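ok so i was messing around last nite and threw this chain in just to see what happens. nothing serious, just curious
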Amino acid sequence: MSTTVQPSTATAPSTLPGQRNGVTVAIGATSDPTGQPVDVWATPDMDAYAYEAVYNPARISLADAEASVRTQLAEFGARVSAFLNEDGPLTAAQRGPAWIARYGCNNECQLDHTGADGEPGWHSTAPIETAHRSVDDNHSASANERLPLLSAQIVVDNYRSQAYGRHTLLWLHMGTTTGTLTPSQAREALTAMRGFVAEFEAVVDQAEAIAAADFDGDPEIARLDREADDRRIAARTAELPAEDRA
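result:
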């Protein structure tokens, strides 16, 4: 849950003026195991939403939390028109024009310039990614599980733009490998991917047909084969001069 717009002191919902019809509530999960199932409070930042709420996923579902918030605010005559799920990062457009003007963001930027992201002079969308995870043979299964097969995000570099200009790029991540592309280069890569997908599907079809003849070996025969290999290696090693034996 973002804390960049949280007020220092909560305002009672009933005291918030001008927000009786169609209020927007920012809601996100909390990791505090001792907290209430749902907490809601008013926020003075009206650019994106009128209220903030947190819910405890261990104690209540998101759907039930939203229903609870609707009920709580209805008691003060406020009708919820929309929920803004803050489990993902906010866009600059959602943070409002004052934020955009202060940090020079494009509308899609999802960096928290007041938090861990600082003011780097560049901007980034959150990456889109495949649900399928990485398949790199050079990494363990657990390491691959932490990475998508493919992901991509937009980055904008406007650090001291008067001197160095403004440049929009795409980062294409393939497991642990990243390629930096201009929009035109990314368009070329996209066209190539579409062609590859069609060819890859044909190869997969062929592989599935060939794999119909696959079978598992006999574990006992495999054990005897390994033991025979070990005996051959031991015999060859015994023939070597003592100084060459590892």
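not much to say yet. The helical segments are 62-74, 92-95, 97-103, 141-145, 161-164, 183-211, 219-239.
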